[in-house]
């Protein structure tokens, strides 16, 4: 029985292609020696990038990574939420759900910044409204109806509160 299975595997093209550690098909240009496999891959750690802005660091790592992105340092309410998220382990919901919330808040902050700078964003086009109108108009109509209902509810609540204050 074992001989039949080994014959089958041997006949399969590509079977066991990674069995020889000296033959790495993903790196055909690299000439590896047996010594490489004992010590692992050799690489020099990149020089530590200087932190010019606040870098949020996982509480599971002792230091920051050698290289990191700096174009969007944490700021505003979304930055506070991100700082809060990094108090939790990366394996907890508190970390990732907080980061998701921070991303959504950051979108709203971006829209507010655009309006402050004098350019009102075309939310319909940026949220894929044209494509949805073309390919799924029923869903678009549902979204518009829900948006109008929420807006009408907010307006009614605001009017009710202003009447209560005046009387």
How would you describe this protein?
The chain is mainly alpha-helical and 167 residues long. It is built from seven helices and no strands. It has helices spanning 2-11, 34-39, 76-85, 93-116, 123-126, 129-135, 137-166. The longest helix is centred in the C-terminal third of the chain and has 30 residues, at 137-166. The N and C termini lie far apart (91 Å).
* Helicity range: 40-55%
Q: Secondary-structure element order, as H and E?
A: HHHHHHH
Characterize the biggest β-sheet: none
Q: What is the percentage of strand-forming residues?
A: under 5%
Shape field = elongated
Number of strands: 0
Compute the average pLDDT. Answer: 84
Structure annotation, total helices: 7
User: What is Rg?
Assistant: 28 Å
Through-space gap between termini:
91 Å
Structural class: mainly alpha
| Low-pLDDT runs | none
């Amino acid at each position: 029985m074992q001989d039949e299975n080994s014959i089958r595997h041997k006949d399969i093209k590509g079977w066991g292609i990674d069995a020889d550690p000296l033959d790495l098909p993903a790196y055909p240009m690299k000439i590896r020696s047996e010594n490489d496999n004992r010590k692992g891959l050799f690489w020099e750690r990149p020089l530590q990038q200087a932190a010019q802005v606040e870098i949020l660091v996982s509480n599971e790592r002792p230091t920051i990574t050698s290289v990191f992105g700096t174009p969007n340092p944490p700021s505003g309410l979304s930055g506070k939420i991100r700082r809060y998220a990094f108090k939790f382990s990366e394996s907890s919901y508190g970390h990732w759900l907080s980061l998701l919330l921070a991303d959504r808040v950051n979108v709203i902050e971006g829209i507010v910044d655009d309006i402050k700078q004098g350019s009102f964003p075309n939310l319909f086009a940026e949220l894929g409204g044209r494509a949805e109108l073309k390919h799924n108009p029923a869903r678009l109509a549902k979204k518009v109806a829900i948006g109008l209902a929420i807006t009408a509810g907010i307006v009614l609540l605001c009017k009710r509160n202003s009447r209560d204050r005046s009387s």
